[in-house]
Amino acid sequence: MKTFRSYSEVLACIGQEVAVSDWITISQAQIQMFADATGDQQWIHTDPERAAKGPFGVPIAHGFLTLSLLPQFFESTFEIEGSKMGVNYGLNRVRFMAPVPVNSRLRARMTLQAAERIEPNGIQMTWLVTVEREGGDKPVCVAESLARSFGAPA
C-alpha cells in the first residue's frame, strides 16, 4: 500500500508504477452475482456444464466484471492522507486481452500516467491499470482510468 501525504507527492510519481495489488480469486459465485446484477446470463459465464464443452473449457468471468474490480484494486494499492472523497471520473481506453477462467487469481499493476490539480482542493489522476492473471502470459485487462480526489493537503 502506497501512502501519499499530499497531492505534491502524487504529482512526483507521474510516469511511475506506484503499486501492485494483492491477488484476488474470481469464483463462480461471484460470476453468477455479476450476471444477476447486470442481466448478462450468457452460458460461457453461468453454465459450468455447457461451458466445460465450450471454447474455454470452463466458465469465464465477464469482461465488465474484471473491469468492475478497479475500485477494489485502487482501494488496496494506495491512499491519499486527508482526502475527504475520491470519485471515479471515467475511462479513456479499455481492452480485454485474455479470458479470466473461473477460480483465476488476478492482481493489478498501477502506473500513474498523469495528474493535474483541480481547484480549489483536488487532483485528477490518470492511471494505467494492468490486470494480470496468475500464470497467464498476457494481461487480461488494460484500462486507462481517471480518478479524482478532493480535500487532501496540496
The counted number of beta strands is 8
Main beta sheet strand tally, sense and closure: 6 strands, antiparallel
The first-to-last residue Cα distance is 20 Å
Order of helices and strands: EHEEHHHHHEEEEE
Low-confidence stretches: none
Shape assignment: elongated
Q: Roughly how many Å is the radius of gyration?
A: 17 Å
Strand content: 35-45%
Structural class: alpha+beta
- Average pLDDT confidence is 97
Kindly describe this structure.
The chain has 154 residues and is an alpha+beta fold. 25% of the residues lie in helices and 39% in strands. The chain is built from six helices and eight strands; from the N terminus they run βαββαααααβββββ. It has helices at residues 7-11, 28-38, 43-46, 48-52, 63-68, 70-77; strands spanning 2-4, 17-20, 24-25, 78-80, 85-96, 105-118, 122-133, 141-150. The strands form two sheets. Strands 2, 3, 5, 6, 7 and 8 form a six-stranded antiparallel beta sheet that branches. Strands 1-4 form a two-stranded parallel sheet. A hairpin with a 7-residue loop joins strand 7 and strand 8. The chain is elongated and about 55 Å long. The model has no long low-confidence stretch (mean pLDDT 97).
Write the layout of secondary structure elements.
Blueprint: E1 2-4, H1 7-11, E2 17-20, E3 24-25, H2 28-38, H3 43-46, H4 48-52, H5 63-68, H6 70-77, E4 78-80, E5 85-96, E6 105-118, E7 122-133, E8 141-150
Parallel strand pairs: 1-4
Antiparallel strand pairs: 2-6, 3-6, 5-8, 6-7, 7-8
